[in-house]
Amino acid sequence: MHSSFIRLLSSIVVATGLLQVQAATYTLSTSYIGEDFLSGDFTFFTSPDPTDGRVTYVDQATATAGNLTFATDDVFILRADDTTVLTASDPGRNSVRLTSVATYGSPSAMVLDIAHMPEGCGTWPAFWTFGSNWPTDGEIDILEGVDNQNFNQATLHTGPDCTMAASRAQTGTILNNDCAAADDGNDGCGVQFAPGTFGPTFNSGGGGWFGMERTVDAISIWYWARDATNVPVGVADGNSEVITDNWGTPVAFFPTSSTCDLATEFTAHNIVINLTFCGVFAGVTSIWDDSCAASTGVADCNDFVDANPAAFSNAYFEINAVRVYE
Ligand SMILES: *[C@@H]1O[C@H](CO)[C@@H](O)[C@H](O)[C@H]1NC(C)=O
Ligand SMILES: *[C@@H]1O[C@H](CO)[C@@H](O)[C@H](O)[C@H]1NC(C)=O
Q1: Ligand 2: does its nearest atom lie under 6 Å from the Cβ of 77?
Q2: Does the annotation count 139 as an active-site position?
Q3: 232-290 pLDDT, tens digit each
Q4: Rounded Cα distance, 208 and 231, in Å
Q5: I need a labelling partner for 262 at 20 to 30 A (CA). Which of 15, 68, 72, 256 fits?
Q6: What molecular function does GO assign, one term (predicted)?
Q7: Res 61 pLDDT > 50
Q8: Cross-strand pairs, 173
Q9: How many domains in the chain?
């Protein structure tokens, strides 16, 4: 090849590379660390659980008194009550659901640095985002799972007009491609992560980082374990800039297409951190039977949650940081 042609070629490659980098470089706009979670940036949701969980979401005063929320300068803990035996007439185990005051739209990126997540039979923890009108403003579940499962699942829930292609550039395993909340009992379009991304195995490794990017072109979710060797620059250190182009192939990838226009399906979202019990996920008979009926010796999730407070001593989030980049 002529050297002038090679020079031309390499200048095109460089120029294209620069454009891509600029398009996916984000600047830190909010850090939630330690006491930030308790000083007005989040509100305490105290209504009955919309998903029929065996839970009572408490207000901030009750959470503080019971040490269900606890913060230092650099760590935030959110946990459920692990001392009270409940009777059948109680509505459920005390726990906490937080909602961010701020909303974040597209384009933006988020890094969750989590050292420990709630684990154990009956637990259903989640870290997710949603808009003010559910489901038409969209829901993005970044971290979610139940009982003693060892895999995370990431899911979108939307209005009626959103389905995903069966083949996408992601490393996770498709559970369902229909994102519409009205279909399939609101399963949403879920993607299952590899073992070790959730529950006891996640916790024993010291947790890790979840990354999420949303643009009008795609919603992408990543995971890196605490000891992973491929944690992208900026993610572990909470840098003031992250470049999502360097984050590799996502575990879950939900692109805009002719069957789902993300720009109309997803508005600006609040962040939610919640821990519920049983309900329409952890308490579903088939799921409970698979992962917990034998080990607990109890046939029903609600009965187990009522009678065994000490089983929830590890049902806590320990969050190092939530960083939002815009
Ligand atoms: C907890 O989070 C999940 C999202 O993963 C949501 O579907 C569920 O409704 C939440 N539970 C409550 C009580 O808000
Ligand atoms: C509250 O919880 C934190 C974190 O688990 C713990 O370090 C602290 O000792 C607890 N405080 C009380 C009064 O139990």
Answers
A1: yes
A2: yes
A3: 999 999 999 999 999 999 999 999 999 999 999 999 999 999 999 999 888 888 899 98
A4: 10
A5: 15
A6: hydrolase activity, hydrolyzing O-glycosyl compounds
A7: yes
A8: 192
A9: 1
**Is 317's C-beta closer than 6 angstroms to any atom of ligand 2?**
no
Residue 19 lies in a domain: no
Average pLDDT score over residue span 110-130: 98
pTM recorded for the entire structure: 0.92
Q: How far apart are CA 302 and CA 28, in angstroms?
A: 42
Q: Catalytic residue, from 35, 119, 139, 265: name it.
A: 139
What is the CATH classification number for the domain harbouring 174? 2.60.120.200
* Percent of the chain surpassing pLDDT 70: 93
Can you read off the two tokens belonging to residue 189?
Answer: 């379009």
Residue 42 belongs to domain spanning? 27-325
Answer whether residue 20 shows pLDDT above 60: no
Q: Please choose from 45, 51, 97, 112 the residue to mutate so as to test ligand 1's pocket, defined by most ligand atoms within 8 A of CB.
A: 51
Closest ligand (CA of 79): 2
Round to whole Å and give the CA distance between 31 and 233: 17
What is the DSSP annotation of 161-228? S-B--SS-S-SSEES-SB-BTTSGGG--EEEE--TTSSHHHHHHTT-EEEEEEE-SSEEEEEEEETT-
Predicted pLDDT at 68: 98
> Can you tell me the mean pLDDT for 204-210?
98
Q: Which ligand sits closest to the CA of 65?
A: 2
Catalytically annotated residue among 144, 213, 265, 318 = 144
